[in-house]
Amino acid sequence: MKLNKKIYIPLTILTLAVVFVSWLYKSGKLTKEAGWSKKETLNHQEQTTGPLYTCPMHPFIIQDKPGSCPICGMELVKKLSDAQNAVQTAEQRQQAEKLGHIALSTTQRVMANVATQAAAVQTISKEISAVGVVQYDQSRQAKVTAWIAGRIDRLHVDTVGAYVARNRPVAEVYSPELLASQQEYLLAVKSREQLKNSPIPSIAQNGEGLVASARQRLMLYGVKESQIAELERAGKPNIRLPIYTPLSGVVTEKLVQQGQYVNVGDALFNIADLSRVWIEVEVYESEFQNIRIGQTVEIASQSFPGKRFSGHVAFIYPFLDPKTRTVRARVEMPNPGLRLKPDMFVNAVIKVGLSPAIVVPVSAVMDSGKRQVVWIETQAGVFEPREVKVGQRSDDRIQILSGIKAGDKVAVSGAYLIDSESQLRGGVPQDHSQHGAGGQTAPAAAKKSDGLDMDDMKMK
C-alpha cells in the first residue's frame, strides 16, 4: 500500500504540471515569457496544426486546402481563430484607415453579406424593346389602271379582300378606240399578205411596216402579245379588252363599279401582296445608336399569344419624330398564313451584340447621381473605393469602361453597407478614377470630393 502511494503521488503531480503548462501555452503567457509576440504565437500554432479554409457566405464549409465553395462557388478564405481574427482585423483597420479604406473581419463580411467576384472581359448582348405597327410592303403594292378610255362591261372581282392573280383578268373594258385599232391591225396583216409577193422591195417593206405600227399601238393600249396572236388567228376584233393585275395579291381598295366609264389612267383597284410585310418600330433616341441594319428582331402580337415572328432590320429612317422623340426602323419579315394584318400593333425585341468590355454585376455599382463607384478588395478583408465610368447595361450586368481592370475583386453584394461603414468611420474616399495608372494624392482627392452623398445614394 505504501508503494502504491509512492507511485500515485508523483504521477498526480506530473499530470497537474502538464495541464498547467498546456494552459499557459494556449493562453500565450508562456510564449510571452519566452519572448514571442501574440502574432508569432498564433503563427506557430497555425504552422503546427495546418491552415483551414472556409467560405465567407457559408462559414460551416471548412476545408484543409484552398478552393471554391461547393454551394455558392466563392473562393475560400483562410479560417482564423477569434484571437487571430482580432489581431488581423486590428492591423488591417489601422492600415486601411490611413489610406481611407475599409477593413472587415470574416464575421463582419458574413453579417454584411459581402461577396466578391473577379471582373472579367465579356461580350454581352442587349435587348431593346420597342413598339411597332404592321405596314404593307410598299415594294409589293400596285394599282390596276385603265390604259384606254371605255366602259367597264364586266368586273371579275367586285369585293375588297378578294385574292387576284397575274394570269387572271380582273375586269373587261369595251372601247370603240380599241375596236378600231384591232380592225386597223387586221387590215395591215391582210395588206402585208398581198404585198409580200410584190417584185418591188419597197412595197413589200411597207406592208411589214404597217403591221408593226398597228401592233405597237395595240400594245400601248395594254393588249398582250398572246392577245394579238389570238386576234390574228381569229381574224376578227374582240369587243372587250381583259385587264390584268401587275402582281398577285389581295384587293385592298375597289374604285369602280360595273358599267362605269373610265378615262386613260383611272385607277380600278389597289392590290397588295401580304406574303411579306413591314414592321415600323419606334426606338427611343437614347438607344437608336445601337440599331444596325441586319439585326435580328423578334415580333410578338397579342393576337397570337406565345407565337414569335422573326425578321431583320432593313432600313433606319434618317430623321427623328419631334413629338415622340423616337427614330423609326423598318423590319422586313415573311408573313406565312397572312397572320400579321396591316395596322396591327406589335411588340418588338431587337437583339444587339455589344463590344467586349469589362463586365460586373449591376449590384456592384453605386450611383450617387454625380459619379459611379465600386468597392475593390485589394487584400483579404480590405476594400477600396474606385470611381468608374459605366457603359451599356444588359439585364443584371453592366459594362465598365474605365476605373478597374480585369481580375480586380469587386464587391458584388454588401457594397452599400461597406460604404455606410466608411461614412460612420468618417472616411474620405479618394478620387480613384486613375487608380492603377498613377492615382492622385490624398490631399488632392480630398479637395475634389468630400465623399459619397448618402442622401442621393441609390443602388443600380
From TrEMBL:
Q: Which UniProt keywords apply?
A: Ion transport, Membrane, Signal, Transmembrane, Transmembrane helix, Transport
Can you tell me where the transmembrane regions are?
7-25
Keyword Cytoplasm present in the record's keywords: the answer is no
Native species of this protein? Trichlorobacter lovleyi (strain ATCC BAA-1151 / DSM 17278 / SZ)
Q: Which residues form the CusB-like three alpha-helical bundle domain?
A: 207-237
Q: Which family does it belong to?
A: Belongs to the membrane fusion protein (MFP) (TC 8.A.1) family.
Q: Where is the composition biased (Basic and acidic residues)?
A: 447-460
GO cellular component: a single term: membrane
UniProt xrefs under PANTHER family: CATION EFFLUX SYSTEM PROTEIN CUSB (PTHR30097)
According to the entry, every stretch annotated as the CusB-like beta-barrel domain falls at 276-349
Q: This protein is called what?
A: Efflux transporter, RND family, MFP subunit
Q: Does the keyword Transport apply?
A: yes
Q: Name one GO molecular function term.
A: transition metal ion binding
Domain of life of the source? Bacteria
